[in-house]
Amino acid sequence: MELNVHNLGCLRGGRRILADVSLQLSAGQGIALQGPNGVGKSTLIRALCGLIPHSGRAQVGEFKLGSDGWLDQIAYAGHQDAIKSALSVSENLRFWAALFNGDAAAALDRFDLSQIADRPAGLCSAGQKRRLGLARLVLTKRPLWLLDEPTVSLDTTHTALFAEVLAQHLAQGGLAIVATHIDLGLPLRQHLLSAPKTVEGLDIADPFLAGDFG
Ligand SMILES: Nc1ncnc2c1ncn2[C@@H]1O[C@H](COP(=O)(O)OP(=O)(O)OP(=O)(O)O)[C@@H](O)[C@H]1O
C-alpha cells in the first residue's frame, strides 16, 4: 500500500498554514514530520484525518482523502489521549478491542500496562495515560498511523518501547507520519515543514477554506 499526498493546503482562521505539501510513502516507510512550533505539523496531520478543510488531495491505496474508505485506513493519536477516565486501563482497551476485533491483553502487555490494568484510567500518570492512548494503535490494525508528538510524557524506556512498536508496524508493511521533535532512532524520512510565504496575510484565493472545524 502507498500513500500519496499531493499539493495539500490549509487555511486556519483565514491564514495560510500549509501550501503545496506533497509526500509519498511506500509500504513500510515512515516520515518524521519536523519544523518549528506553529509551522503546521498538527494541522497537516489533522487535515489527513479529515478534521480540517483542505485543498489538494491524498490517497492511500485505493482510498481518497474525503471518501468513506479513507477513515478505515488511518489510526490517529493526537495530543489528547482520548481515554475514558472512569474505566480501568484494561476496560479502556477492551472497549477499543471490541470495536476493532483486536487483542486487548496483547496491547496491554505490549505497552507495559499489565501492572496497572485495574487502575481507573483517570488516576494514571500522564505517561501511563499516553501509553494507554497509544496502545489503541495496535488494536486498530490500520495501515496508516498519523501520530502527533506521540512520545510526549513518555520516559526514556517507554519512548524506546514505542519506537519498537512503530518499527514493528513499519516492518509489517505499515505507513506512518509522525510529528516529532525528538529522534526516535528509526530510519524515518525527515520532512521539514516550513511556513508558506503568504502565512502572515489573508489568502483570498481560497476563501471557502478559511473556516476551521479543527
Ligand atoms: N483552531 C485554529 N484556528 C486558527 N488558527 C489555528 C488553529 N489551530 C492552530 N492554529 C494556528 O495554525 C498554526 C499551525 O499550528 P499547528 O498546531 O499545526 O502547529 P505545529 O507545527 O503542530 O506546532 P507545535 O510544534 O507547537 O505543536 C499556528 O500558527 C496556530 O496558531
TrEMBL record:
Keyword terms: ATP-binding, Cytochrome c-type biogenesis, Membrane, Nucleotide-binding, Translocase, Transport
Keyword Nucleotide-binding: yes
Listed SMART domains: AAA
SUPFAM superfamilies, sorted: P-loop containing nucleoside triphosphate hydrolases
GO molecular function, one term: transmembrane transporter activity
InterPro entries the UniProt entry points to: AAA+_ATPase (IPR003593), ABC_transporter-like_ATP-bd (IPR003439), ABC_transporter-like_CS (IPR017871), ABC_transptr_haem_export_CcmA (IPR005895), P-loop_NTPase (IPR027417)
Tree of life domain: Bacteria
Gene3D superfamilies named among the record's database cross-references: P-loop containing nucleotide triphosphate hydrolases (3.40.50.300)
Ranges of residues in domain ABC transporter: 3-212
GO biological process: cytochrome complex assembly
Keyword match Ribosomal protein: no
Stated name of the protein: Heme exporter protein A
